[in-house]
Design a protein that fits this description.
The chain has about 350 residues and is an all-alpha fold. The protein has a two-stranded antiparallel ribbon. The protein has 2 domains: about 20-255, Hypothetical protein af1432, CATH 1.10.3210; about 255-325, no CATH class. It has helices spanning about 25-35, 35-40, 60-75, 80-90, 100-110, 115-125, 140-145, 165-185, 195-200, 205-225, 230-250, 255-270, 275, 280-290, 290-300, 310, 335-340; strands at about 5-10, 345.
Length: about 350
């Protein structure tokens, strides 16, 4: 068994809740499940935008599968299950509408890279709970920040980080690689009868692929003392499967119209007097929108009548947009300095 995390640097500010979980990470998990950004994941893209097939994953169903898979890893390695649950639940709440395509548009609009891993920490701290933040534990937030660490062909585990962070990252990569194959077959990007040998060796179904890779990850992690999958045929096949998905699916999806919609919405927000008068950052509004809301705005923009703010007040974001008046948010800054030098205390 690996050494589990049993200490926490705590929360950003003290609280006096009447009801709370004694385990701080279980408390984090409950707060995340109850927050609007988590609910919005049900209407945000995983890979396929605005799916008409209910079997196609949304960002919410993907997150649920990551939570399930990380618990297999955590429980078998003796890690902190509650932290793994919380980190998996929060890891994608900062995703823009239309998924990674939305990330690219936001990077263009900001003039600097927009990373959903950093944005998830920002949303949890500065946009949730009407701008007050969820006040999550430092470790839950930090696990989200370090979730996207694939800079080379190999997925990079970090031995210096808590094992739980690596477990969440691996569960995420394993989950989307396997499930996205299924969704790509359903949407015609892949032919099930022509899947390459390295995919079929992992398994013919999502469950077979998931559990074969998870088993290999758990075995190697126990042997090496680091949560990782770097050795053997399964590791090599998994790497090839991820590369295959990027090459044959992710880079092939062309949704130029979605990019145009996002740019049009941002331009409308930027020049709308309500936003200007109340100093509401249009980027904040854009990040919080769901795919469905963007689609409806896109339909309006394609019509001859120029839509107004009154046309948009039916959307959920306008129920609480006023709380962000005058609030400037830097989506590139996770703002975790408050806990860097704190001494972690035993849970």
């Amino acid at each position: 068994m690996l050494q589990q995390l049993t200490r926490t640097k705590g929360r950003r500010y003290p609280e006096n809740y009447r009801v709370f979980n004694k385990n701080p990470f279980l408390e984090d998990f409950c707060r995340i499940l109850r927050c609007p950004s988590f609910r919005r994941l049900g209407s945000k893209t995983q890979v396929m935008t605005s799916p008409q097939d209910y079997f196609i994953r949304t960002r919410a169903s993907h997150t649920g599968e990551v939570i399930a898979n990380v618990l297999y890893v955590s429980d078998n390695l003796g890690l902190n299950n509650a932290l793994c649950q919380a980190g998996a639940a929060v890891h994608d709440i900062g995703h823009a509408p239309y998924g990674h395509l939305g990330e690219s548009v936001l990077s263009e609009l900001m003039g600097k890279p927009f990373h959903h891993s950093t944005a998830s920490v920002v949303v949890a701290q500065h946009l949730e709970n009407k701008g007050k933040g969820l006040n999550l534990s430092y470790e839950t937030l930090e696990s989200a920040l370090y979730n996207s660490r694939t800079h080379t062909r190999r997925i990079q585990s970090s031995p210096d980080l808590p094992h739980e962070y690596n477990a969440i990252m691996w569960a995420d990569k394993i989950t989307y690689t396997s499930s996205d194959i299924n969704d790509s077959i359903r949407y015609g990007y892949l032919d099930e009868k022509k899947l390459p040998d390295f995919v079929l060796r992992l398994g013919k179904t999502q469950d077979e692929r998931d559990f074969r890779v998870l088993e290999a990850l758990i075995k190697e992690s126990k042997r090496t003392g680091v949560v990782q999958l770097t050795e053997g045929q399964i590791a090599e096949d998994f790497i090839k499967a991820r590369e295959f998905m990027f090459r044959e699916v992710y880079f092939q999806i062309q949704n130029q119209i979605n990019k145009d919609i996002l740019r049009g919405i941002y331009d409308f927000f930027k020049h709308e007097p309500y936003f200007q008068d109340n100093q509401i950052d249009p980027l904040v509004a854009l990040v919080l929108l769901t795919d469905e809301e963007c689609n409806q705005m896109g339909i309006m923009m394609m019509g001859s009548k120029r839509f107004t703010l009154d046309d948009l007040k039916k959307f959920s974001i306008f129920q609480y947009l006023h709380v962000y008046a005058g609030k400037r948010v830097d989506f590139t800054n996770p703002d975790l300095d408050w806990g860097r030098d704190r001494v972690a205390k035993k849970i």
